[in-house]
Design a protein that fits this description.
The protein is an alpha+beta fold. The protein folds into 3 domains: 32-140, Butyryl-Coa Dehydrogenase, subunit A, domain 1, CATH 1.10.540.10; 148-247, Butyryl-CoA Dehydrogenase, subunit A, domain 2 (Beta Barrel), CATH 2.40.110; 250-399, Up-down Bundle (Butyryl-CoA Dehydrogenase, subunit A, domain 3), CATH 1.20.140. The chain has helices at residues 32-56, 63-71, 92-103, 107-118, 121-126, 129-140, 249-285, 297-326, 332-357, 367-375, 385-399; strands at residues 148-149, 165-169, 172-183, 190-197, 200-207, 213-217, 227-237, 242-243, 287-288, 291-292. The strands form 3 sheets. It has a 4-stranded mixed β-sheet with strand order 1-4-5-8. A 4-stranded antiparallel β-sheet has the order 2-3-7-6, with no helix packed on it. The protein has a two-stranded antiparallel sheet with strand order 9-10. The radius of gyration is 21 Å and the shape is globular. It starts with 31 loop residues before the first helix and ends with a helix.
Length: 401
Amino acid sequence: MKQQKNSAPADAPEPTGSGMGPFSPGPFSLGAKYLEIQHEAREFARSIEPIAAAADEMSEVHPGMLNALRNSSLTRLMVPGEFGGRFEQLDPLAICVVREALMATSSHADSMFALQGIGSYAITRAGTQAQRAHWLPRVASAEVLAALALTEPEAGSDLKSIKTEVTAVDGGLRLNGSKSFISNAGFAAYYLVFAYENSGFTMLLVPADAQGVSVTPSPELIAPHVLGEVHFDNVFLPESARLGLPGTGLSLVLATLGVFRVSVAGAAVGLAQAALEEAVRHTRTRVQFGRPLARLGPVAQMLADSWTEIEMARLLTYRAAYMAIEDPAASLHHSSMAKLAASEMASRVVDRCVQVMGRWGLMRGSKIEKLYRQARPMRIYEGASEVLRLGIARQLTEEIV
């Protein structure tokens, strides 16, 4: 499927006073800054295509994919300019645009890119100057991989039920507990650990090589992902390992979601677009009943519905990402709407694409089969659809008087 072109010249000024600064020439097209990032991300995605299929079937970090990411400048989007980032502050729309391009080619690359931000944002927000200076430039260059450790065997969506606990001891802190299904476990240089402390929650910066930290494999998923169970057995940490004040851990989790939840929507849009393009290529050339499948009524309807839903989700995602630039916390419910709509849409679209491709959509190892497996987890991680609906409804009932 041909990519749509933006009709604005490269140096077209962005509109002012419209509240839609990143969009040019009208309110519904990306401006020059984002088009450049989009082009860069698409070129990177094309360059990794030869290794994408192999990487996406791995539950360990693919060395070639990591080297490719290090040789790009994409991960510099994940930290502020002061510490090697591309912009003064993180830009959720730029991150969305990149994830849209990467997920269309490789979930492995998309995850590796996203986790550099998800696993470092609490340091950006609440780390000491020394912690920022030590870790963020290395995250920006992908010299080290980052990880955020939230979920536990008995705590998923209900984060307040975590059992991992940190206590004050002579000379520092003592951490005990286990985290489950942690992305980048076993490969990250450090973990940002969400732990219970006294009557609140705290975020800790824990080096992966700290004594008492160990990793065991997580169960394999239908779409392979770099995951592990991380265990903390009497891990001693200095007081400085606590990011921010005691009891502010939940606010740091919400701040991270405010910036990065909407980027999951971007990835979902990219996945759905890739699935639709596979289906179009097949139905345009596969002839049944004397005509291409794409010219048969039921198939044409599914293709049209899919394209329409992708475009709706893309617009909602870009708008939510733009709102997150200005105020991530205040716009979190819009990010939740985008993540909900886009991830649900991706599942519907890829299912239709498998259907119109018939037995070719079921072939193990085909791109559409891979996308089918990768779409399903998106409705669960970083906010299950049902939990997001609860939060969105709560916000709605508070706003309507």
